[in-house]
Amino acid sequence: MEKKIGHPRVSPRFEWLFVLFTFMQTAGVFVDGWAHGHINQLDTFFTPWHALFYGGFIFSSGLLFIELLKNHRNGYPWRRALPREYFFALGGVVIFGLGGMGDLIWHTLFGIEAGVDALLSPTHMALAFGGAVMASAPLHAIWYRDTNVHRILKLPVIISFALFFMVFTFMMQFFHPFYLPLWMSNLPDVNILSELQQTFHRELGIANSIIYTGMFMGLLLSTIRSWKFPFGSFSIILGLNALAIVLMVGDFYQFITTGFVAGFLVDIIYYKLFHNILKPHVIRVFGFLVPAAIFSSYVVTVLITNGTWWSIHLVAGYIVIAGIAGVMMTYLVVPPGDQRIQ
């Protein structure tokens, strides 16, 4: 058989199935997170929630290998038997598989983790990273696919972005603003906190705005030069993220609406500024407005539903510092000048 050049195309059915299976895998991660937070004693590796995300892994990796074998039989050499973006997913399969085997051994030797220990367990981080790499394959199409030959399906890219972001916010959930809003008036009870504890809660609350901004803006800005998201994309991305975190926590349901509202505001900002986004002054404004809009929505939700024990200075600064963090991220994409090291 004559060997073919280039990389093969994948069918829309393949892309939709892959997104479905990686969605199942990611959902399993959040269900497992719910179990670790709500079931007092987990004494076995073999649980229904493990079955969900390991099942998603088996289906998505199986789909990749079937496509790989099919394309090889059709004349593509092994090193080019998948589109380039899906070779990243194969790397994720290896990382996830090794992490899964390691997780079984880790649980057998050291028991079942709980709380932050479960997030920072080395085998769990390997699982999360491998799963994130797998889920990001459709997103990688915006950088690697020749659109003159093979068109990009928009919704799989949007969902892939959402899943990739969801995995990393899951692993950093202790810094997620929706996970534990430390500055709501009834949480914590400031009457029983020392001054040192109150200061710690304020600082941790401020940190979540900076870290969340860094994760979201880092991923968003990486796409700026390669692709334009259709209107409504960020309503889906931030809405799904809020939905997943809130349902996992089992509290603070008002923030589901916040996620979708914040996403809608980001959609408007993105739509209005994108045509000039690579101009330095425009991307700086964009970098400030996006996180400021997200955290303004969050602040309004807290003030309406629970109130806050923070001062007006801290509440306003909470929004502004997120915006400043966003501006700083933009310098990685559009530096202030064109000077080069000689």
UniProtKB/TrEMBL annotation:
Q: Please, which domain of life does this record's source organism belong to?
A: Bacteria
Tell me the leader sequence span. none
Do the record's keywords include Transmembrane?
A: yes
Q: Which residues cross the membrane?
A: 16-35, 47-66, 86-106, 126-143, 155-175, 204-224, 231-249, 255-273, 285-304, 310-334
Q: Keyword set for this entry?
A: Membrane, Transmembrane, Transmembrane helix
The answer to whether the entry has keyword Membrane is yes
Q: What is this protein called?
A: Uncharacterized protein
The organism is: Candidatus Nomurabacteria bacterium GW2011_GWD2_39_12
